[in-house]
Every structure is written in C-alpha cells, then in structure tokens.
Amino acid sequence: QKEVEQNSGPLSVPEGAIASLNCTYSDRGSQSFFWYRQYSGKSPELIMFIYSNGDKEDGRFTAQLNKASQYVSLLIRDSQPSDSATYLCAVNNWAGNMLTFGGGTRLMVKP
Amino acid sequence: DTGVSQNPRHKITKRGQNVTFRCDPISEHNRLYWYRQTLGQGPEFLTYFQNEAQLEKSRLLSDRFSAERPKGSFSTLEIQRTEQGDSAMYLCASSPSGVGEQFFGPGTRLTVL
Asked: Which residues of chain A does B102 touch, with a Cβ-Cβ cutoff of 8 Å?
C-alpha cells in the first residue's frame, strides 16, 4: 500500500463546475497536508495547505481534512480551463523533514 | 526574484559521467530539500538539510548520490557514474519551518544517454 494515494484520473469536468480531488494517507502521525498544482513540464506550485480537521477556504479552493479517516480533499469551484493540470497531494511526516507525495490526479476542465 | 532557483535547468550527459546541480533557496529559509520526479509520478524525497546539517537521507538513495550545503545557504547535488535510470527531474525546495509549506524551484531535468 502506498503511503499517499490519489486517483490518477483523468478527472474531466466542464468549465464552471466543481472539481473534487481526493487523497488518502497511511501515516497517522502526519501533521500537515498540502495540495500542489503541476503543469506539464513545470515544477509543483503550492496552492493550499491545511493542518487542522475541517475546511479551509482560499478563493475558489477549499481544502478538507479528516484525520480520523486519514482523508484530504481539494474542491475547486467555478473550474476554468487554466485549472487543467496535475494536482499533487503531499503529507508532511511527524518530524517535518520530508513530504510524501501521491502520484497526482490529472484534471481536465473542458470549455 | 526571491524564489528558489536551480541551475542548470537542463543537463544531458553520457552514462558514466558525473553531474552536479545547484540550488539556491529562498534567503530566509533554513530548511532545504531535494526530490526526484519521474514522468507520471509524484516527487520522491531524496535528502534534507537544516542549515548546513544533512539530517535525513532516503534509504533508496544510491551511494552515487551526494549532497552538500556547506554554509547553510546554497546546496549542491552530485550524481557520480550516471546511469540511464537517473534520468528525471531533480527538484529543490525550501521551507522556513519544519511542518510548514515547501516552495519548489523550477527543477533540473537530467537526461542520461
């Protein structure tokens, strides 16, 4: 079992819809959780982070964390074609000395 | 530009040659990380520095790989006797704190022929 799991996709949504991206992790000692966006050929770009159970909103993005279920999600409202990218879920270990990434979910937003 | 910078951006080498990459972190960040990413996969942790001390190194990292951060500022990653399997994007990230967010540089794409 991988430490951080994501559905590889592609997840296809129409422009203006809500995109829902999910991630599960295995290490219960994990303290912080991150969502990165990565365009083809580019490096990961941080878009959201969350430390506590519940929801955290930033513009069109909402991160959700449920530590009991070891589950993190990212919602993108009013999806735009420019949101088309691979979204990487990353989990920081208890010591904070490394990120473990999932394999990423490819999102396609169709005009 | 105050972001993480990496040089070179691209490197093509022949199998068996040594290569060295450089990373300059965000100036006030004392933590620096190296990751490797192959096509279709998420980044994989290689090693971590806090200031000049290398505090963590992946067990998966071959002895051909070595990293330094001599003055707690920039870092270098050297790969000796490169193999075709070393072809990947090598990413550097920096962070101001342990559990805080990590910011990535543009990466160095290595191709081993």
From this structure: 34, 46, 99
